[in-house]
TrEMBL record:
Residues 1-37 form the R3H domain. Residues 122-166 form the G-patch domain. Residues 88-98 have a biased composition (Basic residues). This is G-patch domain-containing protein. Pfam families: G-patch, R3H. One of its GO terms (molecular function) is nucleic acid binding. Residues 75-106 are annotated as: Disordered.
């Protein structure tokens, strides 16, 4: 089914309040139309004729725009690629490039994250729960106090390196 035929099916489906979807790509592209709760058959043929004429006007306007754009592109290609001003050359082209420009220029590698953070207060639920089980601040976790004493540090690492690198 061609693009224009598929577009017409979708427009007619909209006129009757049917749900239409297109699946697949290339030669295997197909359209599925399903009935909804709001699907109806109009009593007046003028309703469908009016809907089709409005849809045709929309299609004609879209085609006219695309023809105009194609003509502009062909005109640009005759003379080679368009030249950009210095401002346009230095301007970031897409969202990713703009984010890169606004990002901090220097990332501090091997820096401990939140090294100056305050310890968890005594009012914290987890702190109170551990204290109720016999833990005191400064002790390690475990039955025989054989666990780690120092807190685990989160370190900024270089992008693309493994977890074991600093």
């Amino acid at each position: 089914m061609s693009n224009n035929e598929r577009r017409q099916v979708h427009m007619l489906a909209r006129a009757y309040n049917l749900k239409s979807t297109s699946l697949g790509s290339g030669e295997n592209r197909s359209t599925t139309v399903t009935k909804t709760d709001r699907t109806f058959i109009p009593n007046d043929k003028r309703y469908i004729e009016r809907f089709i004429s409005q849809a045709q006007q929309t299609v004609d306007a879209t085609n006219a725009l695309s023809i105009k754009q194609q003509a502009m592109m062909a005109k640009q290609n005759i003379y080679g690629p368009p030249t950009l001003s210095k401002k346009e050359k230095n301007k970031p082209k897409d969202k990713k490039e703009r984010k890169k420009e606004n990002a901090p220029k220097e990332v501090l590698q091997s820096r401990v994250v939140a090294a100056d953070a305050a310890p968890i207060s005594d009012a914290n639920v987890g702190h109170r729960m551990l204290a109720a089980m016999g833990w005191k601040q400064g002790d390690s976790l475990g039955v025989t106090n054989s666990g780690i004493v120092n807190p685990i540090e989160a370190v900024i690492r270089q992008k693309g390196k493994g977890l074991g690198t600093l």
